[in-house]
Design brief:
Elements: H1 2-17, H2 20-37, H3 43-46, H4 52-70, H5 75-80, H6 82-88, H7 93-113, H8 116-125, H9 130-156, H10 161-185, H11 188-197, H12 199-207, H13 213-240
Helix pairs in contact: 1-7, 2-4, 2-7, 4-9, 4-10, 7-9, 7-13, 9-10, 9-12, 9-13, 10-11, 12-13
Length: 241
């Protein structure tokens, strides 16, 4: 665990050293704040002391932002050859993947922490469903964990960051949109299975404050599978090299 934390701290520091963290946080706050408070179906328009609008915006903004922060994590290491240097140390492939995953997740958590003034402001506007808001934040963190693992897998199969970004989006589209659409199209067991694979259904359940173990297991399963695939690809490339 110590080695995972060391890698995570190094990667998190590199985010802030290269301004990636600042750009990501500013864009995330700017877009979520604009649509939550000023434009479209904002909080004042729906006239409810709720952060459901913010959670809906976060559901989409993180879908695009996470591939942007994960695309370089393994692809750039492979391109520059530093992944081979890491592999020669007393560090396992799982620790490399785990450290990079933790760094990305911490960056997302920091971005979400910066939105706490939204929570404070809404709580001053009226009676707030605190359980729903906490569930929404939990949903965004679990959603991010799933997409980070997918992004790391995409980054592990190529040394081109743009390819990694596009491939992560391609995989993500299935969980974000297509499984939901196909689940509504098909009937019976197939339709139920496709609906279960959709991240939207699980996220919306959590954002309403319904903490269901099935939703937690779903997100943790997606995360674990993505990390295992990333480790497998990393081990395979190291063995081939």
């Amino acid at each position: 665990m110590d080695k995972i934390w060391i890698i995570a701290k190094r990667e998190l520091a590199s985010f802030f050293d290269s301004l990636i963290a600042y750009v990501m946080i500013i864009l995330f706050l700017g877009m979520s704040g604009f649509f939550t408070w000023l434009f479209g179906n904002n909080i004042f328009l729906i006239n409810q002391a709720s952060l459901q609008v913010f959670f809906g915006i976060g559901f989409w903004t993180l879908f695009f932002f996470i591939p942007a922060i994960t695309m370089r994590m393994l692809a750039e290491e492979t391109r520059s050859g530093t992944i081979e240097l890491l592999s020669t140390k007393a560090i396992t492939d799982w620790q490399i993947v785990g450290g990079k995953f933790l760094a990305c997740l911490l960056l997302v958590v920091i971005a979400l922490f910066c939105t706490l003034p939204y929570y404070i402001t809404v709580s001053q506007l009226g009676s707030v469903d605190h359980g729903g808001i906490l569930g929404g934040y939990l949903g965004l963190i679990l959603l991010s964990a799933g997409y980070i693992s997918i992004g790391l897998f995409a980054s592990s199969i190529t040394n081109n960051q743009i390819v990694a970004f596009l491939f992560a989006l391609f995989i993500g589209i299935f969980f974000q949109i297509l499984f939901d659409v196909m689940g509504s199209t098909f009937r019976g067991g197939l339709g139920s299975t496709l609906n279960y694979l959709s991240m939207r259904a699980h996220f919306e359940s959590l954002s309403r404050g319904v903490i269901d173990s099935r939703d937690i297991v779903y997100f943790l399963s997606i995360t674990l599978v993505g990390l295992l695939f990333s480790q497998s690809m990393l081990s395979r490339r190291n063995w081939q090299s």
